[in-house]
Every structure is written in C-alpha cells, then in structure tokens.
Write a structure and sequence with these properties.
heterodimer; A: alpha+beta; nine-stranded mixed beta sheet; 7 helices; about 25% helix; B: alpha/beta; ten-stranded mixed beta sheet; 12 helices; about 30% helix; globular
C-alpha cells in the first residue's frame, strides 16, 4: 500500500512555509506567527475575519500544503479529504465562548463563537475555502504520535475510497489551567498524500503501510508526524 | 493486512457482535426499543440548569445522571455504558466519538466549583474507557461534530476490512450541558417544544444525551469465538458539503455523495436499501436537505424513513452510534419505528415517514448523519444472524 507525499505546509513557532522552501518546520515552544488573510488567501475571501485562531492556523498550513503540491488553484470542488490530529482542539474558543454565556443568564451567548466550538469546524472552513469535498475529521490521540491520522489516510487511499488526502496536526498553545501533554507544541503541519501525483512531478517520497500497520517513508520507519516532516526535508537520492 | 486488490474487490464486512446503549428512554437497547415501539418521548423540561434565557426549555436528559467528586457527568454515563456491554476482549482496538466530552466541567471551573479539567479534553473519553476495560490499545477519539459516531464506526469497520485489526470497540457519548444548549439556542436552532422531524411545521431540534458501545469483529474471529453477528457494517462513506460551516447545503449533494460511497463500498444498488434511519434533527434546513438527497439517490421509491430524535433528542456525537445499535434491532425485527413528533409530512416525506411502526422486507438499512463543518456520513448495515 503506497501513497506519495506531494506537498508539505506548516506554521510553527519558527515560522511558516512549504516543503520546497525548506524552512525549519520543527515544532517549538515559540509564539506562533500572526496569521493574516494575505498570507494564504485572496483578499476577497471575506470569511477569514470571522474565524477563530485554530481555524486560521489550520487553514494556513493546509493552504501552504496544497500550494506546495500544486493544488492551490481550483474552479470546481475536488474530492480531497482531510484528517487532522489535535490535542486541545478548539478548547481556547470553548473558554472564550463560555465567557459570553456566564453573564446575564446566557442572553449574550455568542453564536459566532459557538460555531467554532467543534474541533472539526476548521476543516469545514478549509473545505469551503479550497473546495474540498472528501471526508474530514479530527482525531484526538491518547498516545500522541500523529500517526493515527496518517494511518486512516493511507487506508482510505489504498482501498480507492479517495485518491488525495490532506493529513496533519493542528494545535494552538495549551490553554491555561488545562493539563499539558508532553511532546505537544503549538503549530500546524499538513501533508498532501496522493495515490498518483497530479501537479507535483517531484514528490518528496512515498509512504508505505505494512501488514502490521507500521508506516515507512522512502523505506525508513517513521513513528511520529514530526519525523515525517523532517524526512520530507531530506532530498531523495537520485 | 490485505493487499490493495483484495481490499478493492472483496465486499468488506465488520460484524457487530455486542452492543449497548444508555439513553433517556432506558439503560438497555431493549428498553429503548420497547419505548420507541410505544411511541414514547423522553423530551421534557430541563432541570439541570436554568433555561430562562434560552429559546427552549426542553431536552431529553437521563434523569439521574450525576457528576461525582468533581468529575463530569460523562463518567456516570460511561460507567453505565460499560456495565451494559460487559467485558470486552483486552486486545480490542478502541475508537470513541464525542463532540464535547465532559464540557460540563468547564462550566463548573468557570463558575468556581471543584472540577477535574482533564474531563474537558476529548481524549479523556478513550483514556477513561480504555482504562476501565483494561484495553492494551491506548485508543483515539474521533471528532466530526454530529457525524462523529458514524465516522467512528466507519473507521472501525475500515480497520477490520483492511485486515489491520480483527476487534474494534466503538464507544460514543455526549451530554446535555448548558454550554451546548446555550449555543444552539444562540443560533436559533432549538425547537421551543419537542422536535418534529420531517414535519412541515417543525421549528428546530431538541437536544438529548446518551451513549452507545458496539464491538466490531472480523467474520473469521467472530466465528472462531462463536459470536453471532447482531448486524453487519457493510458500507460507509463520508463527504463534505464545502458550502458552509453550520448550515447544510440545500442541494443535498454532499449527503448524496456519502450515501453513494457507502452503497458502492457495500456492493449494493439503491433499490436494495429497505429502510433509512435519517439524521432527522427537526431543523428546517437539515430535514429538507436530507429529503432532497434521498430523492436524488432513491428517486420516488417509497420505503420506511425514520428519525429517533423526537424520542431521545439529538445526542450529537453519540447519535450515530445509538442509531447503528438501533439499526441492528430494526433489521432483526424488520420493523421501522415511528418518528415521534411527526404528523404532517414535509414535501418528500409523504409515504416514507410514519406516525407508527412499519414492517418492511429486505435486509439492508441506511443510517445517515450530518453536522457542523459540512460533514456528512452514511453507513449501510446488513441483517445479522438469526437470533
């Protein structure tokens, strides 16, 4: 079972970028850059202003990954799905929303904030923004590696459910008062996985899922999504 | 793991070999079924929090569900669910589905009460259940708004179909909380009275709470352990409307695509579907969208179409699991329950949605859910072994 990695995009404390730029995609504890509309979108895309920070972060990394894969432009919706892992999801938005519920017996509860109190809302924003009509959900892992999403994407591609998937991780800083999980950093990274490369003639390499569920990239076993991000930065021997 | 060719050609099968539900209409599937057959509803006045400022004052709550020692009500719900399904093989892979887990503890924390903040994390659900059953797999939670339960089942079935796993436990749970109630009220999505799915006078949804557990197994292992199939998960599909983050696409194209994917995966023609357990929330837009989508896939063919949300409310991430568990009962009895709250059919519901239970022939049920973020999910269930 194989799929090609044809695009990589990220937003971390170290900056923003795509695989081709070879910027440092390593997650750090540094503050995430401010995501502005002109970073990823046409300025006529009006929905950006209403989005919560998680949606802006995810949308940016997804946009970079699609651009890297040569799939940013579109006129008709595409059968592309997204699976993302997230530790805290929209918890900060949950807290912000509940602050609007507490005063005045809930009369001032914010409908616009409530719309973002589901971790998968940002996938919906990405679907609207980039015309993605495939499946889309968020996975919350107990043992964080990021690979649960990658496994699901590879299975879907393998059984011909879909030919192109976006797979990644997306998290804001852990909100105050919430137990922090080790190994989690704020930021987002997304990979474009394709059964057959469409627009990028030079994929980063291929992913393989073996009979035991182990995932390798260009023949080397990977155990976390961060490892995959690093591996994509290594030029493929010709 | 099966090779690519095997996965494409063989009709996938994951058997549901054990199941349990905890709902406002009872702590077992049998109680839920009996109450559904009697046309009962659990939707009533909410006493858990003040509803004075909201659009509605009703929901379907489990009356004695309680928070304990700073823990969320979700623990009480999960404990009941685990007791209901009984022991689970320790090597089973664990997939849970919830939209908000123990979000009631965020309410308590913000109001200054004692509460465990870990319950707010969605990963707390697989953590709690995995520990409770002594499972070796750490587990994952799937968050896909109101389609979470259906997608969790699809994911479990896919893992079995691919040969990666031969036993997967899927558990779904969500609560009625002020957090969620206030939110849907702020969006104007709540029905002032009990919801009326597919009725032309419907005015919105009624929230509910509940949980479901379904143990999936590959046929080989199930036979080896002498576990009969209560039902079979034969097909699944998911899609995104790519139109709006909170409103369904009016053309129903996304849901129709998910249904067609599920039918293709099950190697079935639309004419072979005997009944539909629809999402049927009772909102103007959801129900209209579903009827359009079903019309696009099934034409004008009349077959039983029902929603259980007028009886047990909309339990969000748990609804897909509860509805699949009920689906096993629907198929084994060849009976579609009435749609409680329904009286005057919306266009497209005529002759399909009923005010009383309806017998049908055939062995395949379609179950659908849609939710925020534009997500749609469809499951095709097949009849199990004779009991």
């Amino acid at each position: 079972m194989m799929a090609h990695v044809t695009g990589v995009g990220w937003v971390t404390g170290a900056g923003t970028g795509t695989g081709k730029n070879r910027h440092d995609s390593h997650p750090t504890t540094g503050q995430l850059p401010r995501i502005t509309r002109d970073l990823i979108l046409d300025e006529t895309y009006l929905h950006f202003g209403r989005m919560d920070d998680l949606s802006r972060l995810g949308l940016a990394a997804i946009g970079f990954a699609l651009k890297d894969a040569g799939l940013a432009g579109w006129t008709e919706p595409r059968d592309i799905g997204i699976i993302a892992v997230s530790a805290w999801g929209c918890l900060q938005t949950d807290m912000d929303y509940y602050e609007t519920v507490m005063p005045d017996g809930g009369r001032r509860a914010s409908p616009s904030l409530f719309s973002y109190t589901l971790p998968n809302t940002f996938l919906g924003e990405a679907a609207v923004c980039f015309g993605l009509t495939g499946t889309g959900y968020v996975i919350n892992e107990v043992s964080p590696s990021g690979l649960a999403g990658l496994l699901a994407c590879l299975e879907s591609i393998s059984c011909d459910e879909i030919k192109t998937m976006l797979c990644g991780a997306c998290d804001l800083e852990c909100p105050a008062g919430i137990p922090r999980k080790s190994g989690h950093f704020p930021g987002a990274v997304f990979f474009v996985l394709e059964k057959v490369p469409q627009s990028n003639p030079s994929p980063y390499g291929h992913l393989h899922l073996d009979k035991c569920g182990a995932i390798s990239f260009n023949g080397k076993r990977i155990q976390t999504l961060v490892q995959l991000a690093h591996a994509c930065r290594v030029p493929i021997p010709q | 793991m099966k090779n690519d060719e095997e996965m494409r050609s063989a009709p996938p099968q994951a058997w549901i070999v054990r199941l349990a539900t905890v709902t406002p209409l009872g702590g077992t599937v049998h109680e839920l079924w009996d109450n559904l057959m009697a046309g009962e509803t659990a939707i009533g006045p909410v006493s858990r929090f003040s509803t004075g400022s909201y659009q509605s004052d009703v929901a379907a709550c489990i009356p004695d569900l309680a928070p304990m020692d700073g823990k969320s009500r979700i623990h009480d719900l999960i404990n009941r669910l685990m007791a209901a399904i009984g022991p689970v093989p320790p090597d089973a892979c664990l997939i849970t589905a919830t939209t908000k887990a123990g979000i009631d503890n965020l309410e308590r924390i913000r109001r200054g009460g004692p509460a465990d903040p870990r319950d707010i994390l969605l990963s707390s659900l697989p953590e709690t259940i995995g520990r409770g059953f002594g499972l070796t797999d750490p587990g994952i939670n799937i968050s896909a708004s109101c389609a979470s339960g259906a997608i969790a089942l699809a994911r479990g079935a896919a893992m079995i179909a691919s040969g990666l796993k031969d036993a997967v436990l899927v558990c779904c749970a969500d609560l009625v909380t002020e957090f969620v109630f206030s939110g849907f009220s702020s969006l104007g999505a709540l029905s002032p009275g009990p919801c009326m799915p597919f009725d032309r006078r419907r005015r919105g949804m009624s929230l509910g709470e509940g949980a479901a557990a379904l143990l999936l197994m590959g046929p080989h292992r199930a036979r080896k352990e002498a576990r009969p199939a209560l039902a079979r998960v034969l097909g699944w599909g998911a899609s995104n409307d790519a139109a709006h983050i909170t409103a369904p696409a009016k053309d129903g194209a996304g849901l129709a695509r998910a249904v067609n994917l599920a039918l293709t995966r099950a190697h079935l023609h639309p004419d072979q579907i005997s009944a539909i357990c629809a999402h049927g929330t009772g909102t103007i837009h959801n129900d209209a969208m579903e009827l359009v989508a079903f019309g696009n896939v099934f034409g004008k063919r009349r077959f039983p179409l029902f929603s259980v949300k007028g009886a047990i409310g909309h339990s969000l991430g748990a609804s897909g699991g509860i509805e699949a568990a009920l689906g096993a009962k629907v198929l084994s009895t060849h009976t579609a329950p009435s749609t409680v709250g329904f009286r005057k059919p919306e266009t497209g519901a005529e002759g399909r949605v009923h005010t009383h239970p309806v017998r049908f022939s055939g062995d395949y049920l379609l179950s659908t859910n849609s939710g925020f973020g534009g997500i749609n999910a469809a499951l095709v269930l097949g009849k199990g072994d004779p009991q």
